[in-house]
Amino acid sequence: MEETVEVQELDKVVVRFSGDSGDGMQLAGNIFSTVSATVGNSISTFPDYPADIRAPQGSLTGVSGFQVHIGADIVYTPGDLCDVLVCMNAAALKTQYCHAKPGAAIIIDTDSFGPKDLEKAQFKTEDYLGEMGIDPDRVIACPLTTMVKDCLADSGMDNKSVLKCRNMFALSLVCWLFDRDLEIAFNFLRKKFAKKPAIAENNIKVIQAGYDYGHNTHSSAGVVRRIETKHKVPGRYMDITGNKATAYGFIAAAEKAGLKLYLGSYPITPATDVLHELSKHKSLGVTTVQCEDEIAGCASAVGASFAGALAVTSTSGPGLCLKSEAMNLAVIMELPLVILDVQRGGPATGLPTKSEQTDLLQALFGRNGESPMPVMAAQSPTDCFDAAYEASKLALEHMTPVILFTDAYVANGSGAFRLPNLADYPAIQPPYVPEELKGEWTPYMRAENGTRYWAVPGREGFTHILGGLEKDCKTGAISTDPENHHLMTELRAQKIANIPVPDLEVAGDVDDAELLIVGFGGTYGHLHAAMDRMRKAGHKVAFTHFRYINPLPKNTAEVLLRYPKVVVAEQNMGQLAGWLRMKVDGFCPAQYNEVKGQPFKIGELVDAFTELINK
To answer: What 3-state class would DSSP assign to 407?
Structure first.
């Protein structure tokens, strides 16, 4: 008679996959998050990989991680610490154990914990568990490599290819622990390897073998955990990364505006995936050009904008610096352009695979002359779709370049994305020059809101020239007149200031909070979760988050000055706090700043904010 297995219902769980850069941890994590999203769980992921092109195998610097948080209800972050840690080798255990909860289950491949592996990972003894203070009862130790080789002994695959399937065995053990539906994983692999069906089927064979191993040995100590979705919203869902959602948002905006989409870009981590994704969609009217450098990428997008396309250029912090002259060309020509900045660690090359929010002041001020432009930031991987759509709408309707921030955490992370209905999105209506102005129109003639009319080349009677030299506000001819330059500077600034953006929304104890938490961009989930935890502990706390940074929402001063204590939390040394002090008279916030290349830890936020309240 088969032994029964207890099934526990959980609200949420955090799993972290870790191993060498070539061990396929990102793929294993992506499949597990896709399986979870497909059954309706809320998910949040955090890929954490090294900047080394290929560190020595088994070395401490070459460890790659992927953390996924799945929940029955909404989850805001990938979680501070994991409940299950998968370690494909000794170096992974050495570097990633700090991310595990005290009672976490640990899955290890004992075949990768030999004397040489332990030496590379700088263990001093062969008792690696004792050396790290790990209870052996929490460890699911199995000869994973050996079992994968046995499973694929008759497959005809070479040894190197067989070893690449080890990640699927680890994935299947996690699927066993949390009662995941393997058919979803099988479909994922068959689609991914559609042109190489033998590889797909061999990986599927390994997954089934690993799942059977977990079942037969009761690797979960006789307990299977299940996370049932509490609030199911009907619709079609997919697990989507921030970069892919951003690309789809641009496609949707171009479709809504009735325009072709043009992306001029140069590859740079972590923004390159936007270029990769958009290059797949020529059938949707998308043109992508991989240019010779960042300047050319932006300048080509300015040309595409002049020609009447929705023009986008994508980059990260170093590239934003290089694009500044071409961005200013769009400012003075008053052409629509979206500049996507996927922020990463700096300065210089810095931490190219890690996340920061350190480009804010560069976006606001990092150009010559008075060159105002809107700046906005996406809040989560799934929010990137809406943010890209809104940035495009703003650029097209107000004839201005717009900087859209994401960051490495948001861009590479993923969430369960409910496929939207484009009909529900607001119209995008560029200010095309009215036909009745033919004969009297000049290039800098403006609509009532101060926006320059857009005359797309090819319209009879609207031939014109734009360029980088200052123009006369009435004739459009080159002008060095001092009064005209001052007027044009004011007109460009007022156009940006006139852009209507939504008011700040305040969550939590709106009317009587002791502390207001303030942030922007990809820290949204961590700060919201910190507020929730503090309110459960009995504190009066409110939270507001800036999506639009320039221009600021009209109620900014009213919100920020309403509460006795305010803390601005950001992953830089105080750039948003400085901007808000500049724009709001009498605003003197406390600051919480980290520049670690890693997401905030909710527990650390709670401790710091609680200390502020108790002072």
So the answer is: strand
The structure tokens listed for 7 are 């099934």
Q: CA-to-CA distance for 377 and 197, rounded, in angstroms? A: 41
Contact, 529 vs 477, CB < 8 A? no
Q: CA nearest 137: which of 13, 15, 221?
A: 221
Residue 511's SS3 state is coil
Of 328, 471, 339, 465, the residue nearest 403 (C-alpha): 339
Q: What is the largest CA-CA distance in the chain?
A: 95
Query: Which DSSP helix (H) or strand (E) runs through 340?
Result: strand 337-343
The answer to whether residues 115 and 126 touch, using CB atoms and an 8 Å cutoff, is yes
- SS3 category, 554: coil
Q: What is the pLDDT of residues 543-584, one digit of tens each?
A: 999 999 999 999 999 999 999 999 999 999 999 999 999 999
Q: Which two tokens stand for residue 56?
A: 């020595």
d(CA 318, CA 352): 10
What is the number of H-type helices and E-type strands within the chain? 22, 22
Q: Who contacts 276 (Cβ-Cβ below 8 Å, separation ≥6)?
A: none
Measured distance CA(289)–CA(166) in Å, rounded: 37
Distance of CA 415 to the CA centre of its chain: 10
Q: What is the DSSP string of 165-183?
A: THHHHHHHHHHHHTT--HH
| Closest to 615 in 3D by CA, of 546, 487, 530, 514 | 514
pLDDT in tens, 339-361: 999 999 999 999 999 999 999 99
Residue 566, amino acid: V
Instruction: Band the pLDDT of 2: cuts 50, 70, 90.
Output: very low
Distance, CA of 65 to CA of 48 (rounded, Å): 5
The DSSP code for 517 is E
Measured CA to CA, the distance from residue 147 to residue 150 in angstroms comes to: 5
